[in-house]
What does this fold into?
Amino acid sequence: MESEIRNKGGKKNLVKKIFDVAGSVLVFIVIAFAFFVLVVSVTAKRDADGAATIFGVQLRFVQSDSMAKCDRTDVSQYKIKSIPVKSCVFIEVIPEDETEREEWFKTINVGDVLTFKYVYQKQETITHRVVEKEEKPDGGYVITLEGDNKSAEGTVGRQVIDTS
It folds into this structure.
């Protein structure tokens, strides 16, 4: 009987030790993650409107409903179906090297969603879907983009980007 009591006490101590170690590991992971976030935040490259670029990816929030779900636009064949206002989006930043940039543009397809700077009355950051891509004979592409959220008349903002 005495050995059973000792054995139960030993199991309780073992369980307590396991929880103590797991708790210490969890605290270490949280501290390491907080340190990582701090370093990344301090070293992140920011563009003119304050968006941070970390490891070639930007984090932004969608400001308009131009990519919101709309029954007048068929997006069933696309990976990204809609992007509601205030959605957080992670954006792959276009390479700075010209050769890498040309290769990057080759990978863009109709249906892809791009975020880009465009000038109407002022420069704006816009997220729209590629609806047409034409290769230019002298190099580069002409990419046409539109928002998914069309009005009752079927109209929507349209942009044309010449990559050359």
